[in-house]
């Protein structure tokens, strides 16, 4: 859920069925808003084509019978094509398949000639490492990553030396 006025993105039911809130990079806001406009336009076309909405989690589908067609439930990154529901005439839209995201990452890495293996998960490690380099404390990083144990967070940050104010420094270096 994007909250542009607060500058945060809330991920619901992420890894470990946890909700997480992370800052939205200001540089991405214009592109994200363009994407939202594209989703709204596509949704309008889908409504006009009398589609049955998006796929919702089972409990939500039962609780909110007509919500699948509402704009608020549409995927930020929807699949290109509608999917026919098995044993039904219903047409629904799903989210973009994770493999397409991975292929796009692989293509970008090849294009930039980064000589490393990069996956979507690499971004979590990079996020943690950059926060550590920017002198964020380990507990803040732990919270942003949604870890219940700080030891898990330490795994993500093992490649960067912490330079937070908690680390002793010689007064001659001030």
Write the layout of secondary structure elements.
Blueprint: E1 2-3, E2 8-11, E3 20-23, H1 29-48, H2 58-63, E4 83-84, E5 91-92, H3 98-112, H4 122-133, H5 138-145, H6 150-156
Task: Provide an overview of this structure.
The chain has 174 residues and is mainly alpha-helical. The protein folds into 2 domains: 2-96, no CATH class; 99-166, no CATH class. It contains 6 helices and 5 strands, in the order βββααββαααα. The strands form 2 sheets. Strands 1-2-3 form a 3-stranded antiparallel β-sheet. A two-stranded antiparallel sheet has the order 4-5. The longest helix is centred in the N-terminal third of the chain and has 20 residues, at 29-48. The mean pLDDT is 87.
Side-by-side strand order of the widest sheet = 1-2-3
Number of helices: 6
* Radius of gyration from the alpha-carbon trace, in angstroms: 21 Å
Order of helices and strands: EEEHHEEHHHH
| Helix vs. strand class | mainly alpha
Number of domains: 2
Mean pLDDT: 87
**Strand element count:** 5
Give the termini distance in whole angstroms: 43 Å
Parts with pLDDT < 50 across at least 5 consecutive residues = none
Strand portion: 5-15%
Helix percentage range: 25-40%
Shape: elongated
Instruction: Sketch the major β-sheet.
Output: 3 strands, antiparallel
- Specify the oligomeric state: single chain
Entry summary:
The chain is built from 6 helices and 5 strands. It is mainly alpha-helical and about 170 residues long.
